[in-house]
Specification:
The structure is a single chain. About 40% of the residues lie in helices and about 20% in strands. The N and C termini lie far apart (about 35 Å). Helix 1 (about 5-20) crosses helix 2 (about 35-45). The chain has seven helices and eight strands; from the N terminus they run H-E-H-E-E-E-E-H-H-E-H-E-H-E-H.
Length: about 210
């Protein structure tokens, strides 16, 4: 059982230490909870921290059901149910809405959507992964950048999702890879909501360096 996100970050730092040694690395966290885990990793390994976001694409009548995900610049990940819903005439407005939401959120956190990852090893961090749709969209996005290597670090990822993400050919570092999974929160003793203010405050420490 993981105590909280700080504990998760410390445990992941131990697992990552030898993997990142001597490499030009950047910790790229997925808000909001992933920023707390990512901050712990970045501080523990003396690395910089940045954020990236994608949003789930959901069918108009099923707002909780992810059939894909999108990044701020329109990189789309298509889940296995995409075709079933994509002919709905309302689907295009859902895509456009989520794309604008992602852009607005990134700009609120970091001021712009300019990224430069040339020749860097990216440690992509979240506080837990469920279906993996948003992470898959970000991985597709990262693979279009000039990154040297991608390491995905997360406290928990279900076995089924782990098998999907493995197909991206990246290294996955996880504390728990359960066969039985209902939610990320079940693997934490403390899994509080994280506010935007906390995210902005953490990122501010890295901007001033």
């Amino acid at each position: 059982m993981i105590h909280d996100r700080l504990h998760a970050g410390r445990l992941l730092t131990e697992k990552l230490a030898t993997l990142v040694k001597g490499k030009n690395c950047l910790v790229l966290a997925i808000p909001r909870g992933g920023v707390i885990v990512g901050d712990e990793i970045a501080r523990g390994l003396n690395l910089s921290l940045d954020v990236i976001i994608s949003k789930k694409i959901t069918p108009p009548d099923y707002p909780e059901y992810a059939v894909g995900a999108i990044t701020y610049d329109g990189v789309l990940y298509y889940g296995h149910e995409w075709e079933r819903y994509s002919n709905d005439p309302r689907f295009e407005s859902e895509i456009n809405k989520k794309k604008m939401e992602v852009t607005r959120q990134i700009e609120a956190y970091r001021g712009n959507t300019d990224y430069n990852f040339d020749d860097k090893t990216i440690v992509l961090v979240d506080d837990g992964i469920a279906t993996g749709a948003t992470v898959c969209a970000i991985l597709q996005w990262l693979l279009q950048k000039q990154v040297k290597e991608i390491i995905l670090a997360t406290p928990v990822i279900p076995f089924v999702t782990h098998e999907i993400i493995k197909q991206f050919g990246i290294k996955i570092i996880a504390l728990e890879i359960p066969m039985d999974f209902s939610s990320v929160g079940q693997f934490y003793r403390k899994f509080d909501q994280v506010s935007d203010q906390i995210v902005v405050s953490i990122l501010g420490k890295y901007k001033s360096k």
